[in-house]
Amino acid sequence: MQHFRIVMLALAVMLTASLAHAECMLPLPPDPPARAQNDGSVEPSVHAPPPRCLQWSDRCVQCRKGDDGAVLCSNIGPACQPDTVQCIQTAPDDEPKADPKADPDADRKTETGPRTSP
What we know:
With 118 residues, the protein is α+β, with helices and mostly antiparallel strands. It contains two helices and four strands; from the N terminus they run H-E-E-E-E-H. Helix content is 25%, strand content 14%. A four-stranded antiparallel sheet has the order 3-2-1-4, with no helix packed on it. Strand 1 (53-57) and strand 2 form a beta hairpin. The chain is elongated, with a radius of gyration of 36 Å. It starts with a helix and ends in an 8-residue tail after the last helix.
């Protein structure tokens, strides 16, 4: 049993010594070249709404504007590959255009003079 302990101790000392010298023997690979921080192309963030859009998505995250104007977004899926941001629902026009066909009383409003009953 004493012989086994001596062999194990010698083995541990040799492994420790070899690991200490391994750094000197193996050359480290060179650092990769630094990437440019700004290559000119800017992808819009899914958290920044497109103009006049109430609901939008990049096929991974769904976002919408809340009643108070705050941006509300879902969490991204585990293996999702985002696409370009697309508007799903746009805001209605501020001034609705008058459609005479939609108003059944439009012909009465355009008449001039008093109306007589038959």
